[in-house]
UniProtKB/TrEMBL annotation:
It comes from Fervidibacillus albus. This is ABC transporter ATP-binding protein. One of its GO terms (molecular function) is ATP binding. It comes from the Bacteria. Keywords: ATP-binding, Nucleotide-binding, Transport.
Length: 226
């Protein structure tokens, strides 16, 4: 469970997040929608510990000083070690987690994500969508309890979008808390249990349950964001 309590982040004299409070439960997929600059990345980066909030606090399972290893983070425009092969980068991530490298396991992961044939290809030679899938795979390689995904669907074709949706459902069933930002409202309505509308660093509306339809998302987006 993630508790965000009165969270604020100020850059210069402007608030990127202002007094945001929300609780996200195990096995829940929470969507973040909002215009460019609304504060979605800042929200995710704060939970991931990549930036220090100006005010407020974040607790995971009741603990303020949580171990960041419980988190998997997919950043927007992921940075890659371009001159490593796909296999090398996965093994590098295993090593960072002090885990033994199991080639069969990494091959299985690559197979699951349709990347096995790219195993010995340098990362710089992958397409945008392939890099996005690799970045997702790297975010989950250490079996995190919390998955923070900044625009995870960027660059994916319809087949891979469906695959990603299935993967997220499987992870949800395992009790993993997933928080994702997206500009694709149809996807947010389709996959999320709850959608938070962010505008100028504040949560302005929440849609959930049977009220969470694509039509309602579009309507409320126009009302509470634009
Ligand atoms: P997008 O949909 O474009 O990815 P977003 O909702 O993720 O946008 P953020 O990246 O969280 O928005 O940015 C929120 C606000 O904080 C913006 O006004 C942005 O200019 C500002 N901001 C973000 N990072 C920094 C930074 N490192 N220094 C100064 N201002 C920043």
């Amino acid at each position: 469970m993630i508790e965000v309590i009165k969270l604020s982040k100020k850059y210069h004299d402007q608030y990127a997040l202002q007094n945001v409070s929300v609780t996200m439960n195990s096995g829940e997929i929470v969507g973040l929608v909002g215009k460019n600059g609304a504060g979605k990345t800042t929200f995710l980066e704060s939970i991931a510990g990549l930036i220090k909030p100006t005010d407020g606090e974040i607790k995971i399972n009741g603990k303020k000083d949580y171990n960041y290893h419980v988190i998997g983070y997919l950043e927007d425009n992921p940075y890659f070690y371009d001159y490593l092969t796909v296999k090398e980068i996965i093994h590098y991530y295993y090593l960072m987690q002090n885990k033994k490298i199991k080639s069969e396991k990494s091959d299985q992961l690559l197979l699951d994500y349709g990347l096995l044939e790219k195993r010995d290809v340098m990362v710089k030679e992958l397409s945008r969508g392939m890099k996005q899938k690799l970045a997702f795979l790297l975010a989950i390689v250490h079996n995190p309890k919390i998955l923070l995904l900044d625009e995870p669907f960027t660059g994916l074709d319809p087949v891979n979008l469906k695959m990603m949706k299935n993967k997220l459902s499987q992870l949800k069933k395992k009790g993993i808390t997933i928080v994702l930002s997206t500009h694709i409202l149809s996807f947010a309505s389709n996959i999320c249990d709850r959608v938070l509308f962010l505008d100028k660093g504040k949560i302005t509306y929440i849609l959930e349950g049977s009220r969470l339809t694509e039509k309602a998302l579009e309507e409320k987006f126009n009302e509470y964001v634009v």
